[in-house]
Specification:
The protein contains 5 helices and 8 strands. It is α+β, with helices and mostly antiparallel strands. This is RimJ/RimL family protein N-acetyltransferase.
Length: 169
Amino acid sequence: MLVETNRLQLSKITLEDAPFILELMNSPHWLKYIGDRNVRTVAQAEDYLKERTLKSYDTHGFGFYKIQLKDENLKSIGTCGLVKRDELEYVDIGFSLLPNYEGKGYGFEASSEIIKLAKDQFKLKKITAITLPTNTNSIKLLEKLGLSYEKRVKPFEDDEELLLFAKTL
């Protein structure tokens, strides 16, 4: 376990979490706001985890973590964490929840703990976040977390314009 709050437990994602990751990556808001990663099987989810999440733990010492509900026998309800993208200067915070768990404060609770870790454990001086201009819930959460809009960016090959938020730690 990485962090515990009143309602949540955050811990590293493992290959055993592939079925959950498959469900999350194919949820409506993931597909709409994060994008279709063409992960359709548990085996593909395992490959995705090996290539992205587990590799990030090894390379950077941090990554995305599973959010689990303490009241529901540690049911996995989403992910939250830090990612260092080659396309961006600073480490990025990100989050995603299964549909039934959105709008209940879990994203704020988990992200607040990740920001504390970014500063205290990982010694980061600044974090950023990117989101689609249409993702109003994500924008509200980023602002509630103390990140401020900085500029519009097109960091990826798809040439899609994203909003970049930042916070000095």
